[in-house]
Every structure is written in C-alpha cells, then in structure tokens.
Write a structure and sequence with these properties.
This protein has a ten-stranded mixed beta sheet with strand order 4-2-5-16-15-6-7-14-12-13, with helices on both faces. Strands 1-3 form a two-stranded parallel ribbon. The chain has helices at 17-31, 46-51, 55-67, 80-85, 95-103, 185-202, 218-241, 250-259, 270-284, 311-318, 328-345, 348-366, 372-377, 388-402; strands at residues 4-5, 10-14, 35-36, 39-43, 69-72, 106-111, 128-132, 142-146, 150-157, 163-171, 176-180, 205-210, 245-249, 264-268, 290-295, 301-305, 369-370, 384-385. The chain starts with a strand and ends with a helix. The chain is α/β, with parallel strands linked by helices and 403 residues long. The longest helix is centred in the middle third of the chain and has 24 residues, at 218-241.
Length: 403
C-alpha cells in the first residue's frame, strides 16, 4: 500500500529510559512502514534538557501551540539521585508541569479496556476518564510550623494598600501547623472550558465534584465558575450532542462512581484528580493501560502515556537482558495524536489507520499474546508472555490483516 500522506506535522517529544527505546520500536515497526511521518522533533531526554538548560521543553510547548497536536514520550523528573547519575546542572522541573503551565492545559486520563483484564469494580464495563485540574491548591501551597501561644491570621493586602484579615486559629494551647492555598479564576475557567470541550469532542457526559458545602468560598468558586460557563457557552451544545453536565459533592461522586458502569468524564480539582486518577488506573488493572492527553482551552492537544520511564526495565536492557515492557499506553499516545491530526487536517486515512492500529493492539492482547504485566493479570485460558519487541511485531501482523 502507498504510505499515508500527512498534511501538517505533529510535534514529537522524545523521552527517557525504557520508554525511549519503545518509542523508536513503535516508529520503526508500526508507523514508518505505513505513514509518510511528518514531525517536528524535540529531544526531551534528560541529557539534552540539561544541555539546553531546559529550553528544549519550552520550545516544544511553543511548537505545540503552533501545530496544535503533540505526542510525548515519558520523561524523567530528576530527584537527588538523578542529579548525580546524570551530572545535572540543577534539579530541572517536571517537563509535564512546564508544558501544562505553558499550554494552560487540563489532563484527561482514561483506561484501555481489553477482555481478560477484569476491573476490580465488576460493574465498570466502560472507561472512566479523569479530568484533573493541574494548577494551584496544595501543589502551590505555603506551609508553616506554628508554636504554642501564636495566633495565625489570613491577611490580604488590597490594591489600594488596605488589608483584609480573617482569623485562622489561635494556637493558645498547642503547637500546630498551617497552610495557605490559592487558585485563579482564570485557571478555573480554562479548566472548565477544557472539560466542556473534551466532553463534546468525546461525546461523553461530564461530572464535576467539589466540597462546596464545607468550603463555601474556595470550592464554591469552582462550582460557580463551572455553572456560569456551562449555562452561557455550552448548554445548547450539550443538549444538541445529547450529553449531560452533572455537578455533585465529591463524596457523593465517589459513591456514584463505584456504583456506575462507567462511560463518562469525571472532572476533579488538583488533589482529588491526583488521587482518583491512580485509583481509577489501579481499579481498571494497570497504569500501563492508561491513556493521557493534555487539552488546552483553545483546543490544543498533547498525547502521552500515563506512566513513567520504566527505569527498572531500562537497566535490564542496558545489561543486554530481555524485557517484557508494556508499550500499549505509549502506542495509544501515538494513535491519539495521529487521529487528532487527521481530524484537524481532514485526512480520514490517518484517522482510519489510528483506529486500526488500536484495534490490532487490542486484538493481539485478547488473542492471548501480551507482555509480562498483563500476563499476570489476564484471566484468559490460553495466553503467551512475549518480550517488548515481539509484542509490537505481533501487533504489526494483525495490523497488516486489518489494512
């Protein structure tokens, strides 16, 4: 067959360790033979981020704004051990955090379902997509240790120099702790629009939950901004699409989620989304079977796997030992980006290829051919554990049949 022609490049962000190895395998085995692949390439491997003082991360985000679609490999966020291992100039920030901030994006994570991997919640027959607000709250907090006899107040200095004060607590009888958190109306608005747009894009109901009955100003502001934007900008669009926006308290949402059969987007504040996305991933079976896409309010998309760089397998690979690393989430990052590129460029062949590659991947697993992590989870009677490369080759054989 003739290679599929791409009209517009997508931004390609390479990464670290075992996922970098898998990245090249996916391109060589499953993409380049079929697509005249056009990408604007950025090396986000830790060595090159260090060499460029992390400018390459900023450049990749700016390129994503230009082209509208990006695909990203998993990257290392360095800690003290990595400082020594890679001889770093400084402890560079998370590339994901930098890109999220520059795109003002919201992260959507959704499980990939296959036969033989049964969710721990048996009623979950459809994916549950977590939308996490990725700004503020406890992640940008200020904390203090407070000695007995102290009095803590919340003080805001207004633009005209006057001050507003509220008592936090009088620590007259005990030592204690305090923390201050903030958020921005502009960030919450961006979060809301990204969620509404993605719900329309995916044709899924949207749930949103906070604790506004207890947090009558902080959480209530989230609720009010979502409600105002929905009523003014999205209600008619949702009605036309036949989908629903639903608000409830976070504890009620958790109870409803457990009883549900899935098939919706669950929007969460930053901390709730951090916790619930891992809970959803684990309950569905595997973080390696979890897609992740960053969506900006302007409709810019950056696709990646939800997991890290698989460091343990990389060290085995360096020793020449065989690995059986799950490549599905990374592969689905590529298919998501290619499909979105095809949609935006009106290139149906690209969309169809992405659909067939995903189907070939699922068919391979459901036929019993899978990597070691899924082999331990699968309830299929006839199953075979294969190594990293052989799994991708098996997917390729099925892809050839579908094409």
């Amino acid at each position: 067959m003739d290679k599929i022609i791409m009209k517009t490049p997508l931004v390609e962000m390479d990464g670290d360790e075992m996922t970098r190895i898998i990245w090249k395998m996916i391109k060589d085995i499953l993409l380049l033979p079929y697509i005249d692949l056009k990408t604007e390439y950025y090396d986000l491997g830790l060595e090159y981020r260090n060499e460029t003082n992390d400018q390459v991360t900023i450049d990749s985000a700016e390129a994503t704004k230009k082209y509208g679609v990006a695909v990203k490999c998993a990257t290392i966020t360095p800690n003290a051990a990595r400082m020594t291992e890679y001889n770093l100039k400084e402890m560079w920030k998370s590339p994901n955090g930098t890109i999220r901030a520059l795109l003002d994006g919201t992260v959507f994570r959704s499980p990939i379902l296959v036969k033989g991997i049964t969710p721990y919640i048996p009623t979950w027959t459809k994916p549950i997509c977590i939308a996490r607000h990725a700004y503020g709250d406890v992640y940008k907090n200020t904390e203090m240790i407070v000695e007995k006899g102290s009095k803590a107040e919340l003080c805001v200095t207004n633009a005209d120099g006057t001050q507003s004060r509220e008592l936090i607590f009088d620590f007259d009888k005990s030592d204690g702790i305090i923390q201050g958190m903030h958020n921005l109306d502009s960030s919450i608005s961006s979060f809301a629009r990204a969620c509404f747009n993605y719900a329309l894009d995916q044709k899924l109901d949207l749930w949103f939950a906070t604790k506004d009955t207890i947090s009558k100003k902080y959480d209530h502001t989230f609720k009010d901004i979502f409600a105002e934007i929905f009523e003014n900008e999205y209600k008619e669009k949702f009605d036309k699409a036949g989908i629903e926006y639903f608000y409830t308290l976070i504890d009620d949402a958790v109870a409803r989620v457990i009883r549900s059969d899935g098939g919706y987007i669950w929007a969460c504040k930053n901390y709730d989304g951090d916790v619930m996305s891992d809970m959803i991933a684990t309950a569905f079976g595997s973080l390696a079977m979890m897609t992740s896409v960053l969506v900006s309010p302007e409709g810019i998309y950056e696709y990646e796997a939800a997991h890290g760089t698989v460091q343990r397998h990389y060290y085995k690979h360096l020793k020449g030992e065989e690995t059986s690393t799950n490549s599905v989430a990374t592969l689905f990052a590529w298919t998501g980006a290619l499909r979105k590129r095809g949609e935006l460029d009106d290139t149906p062949q690209l969309c169809e290829f992405a659909d067939k590659l995903e189907q070939a991947t699922i068919d391979t697993i459901e036929s019993g051919v899978m990597t070691g992590d899924l082999y331990l989870l699968s309830t299929l009677e006839n199953k075979t554990k294969v190594n990293t490369e052989d799994f991708l080759k098996a997917v390729n054989e099925r892809l050839k049949e579908l094409l």
